[in-house]
């Protein structure tokens, strides 16, 4: 996708006096990234299904994207790094009325990482790293 846009002005100046209205409305480095939009995204899903069993393997990928034009502390732009998540689900029809479900999300314990840009040359440093944790879910469904 084309993930670019017209950059915001260097700063907001409502009264046209050449002075920024506030520090919160100053945008650095003239980035033309479309806020929140990745250039590349993809989903790959493998499915097996018969009368009793359904298995799904799912991989979702998203390339890096501009998360914020200005960090609330430094005022610098923040980029979310590219990431991919691998999930799986299994459904088994025990009887015509009873179904067992199992889901595992983030099988590989993928981390979400962000970086902040510190200069016009594009130099970046890690800002944050979050682990979403692997999540397991089990359930039973019964049709009356």
TrEMBL record:
Protein name, entry field: TonB-dependent receptor
Top-rank taxon, per record: Bacteria
Protein's cellular compartments: Cell outer membrane
Parts of the chain that traverse the membrane: none
Keyword DNA-binding found: no
KW Membrane (keyword) present: yes
UniProtKB keywords: Cell outer membrane, Membrane, Receptor
Species for this entry: Paraglaciecola aquimarina
Record InterPro entries: Beta-barrel_TonB_sf
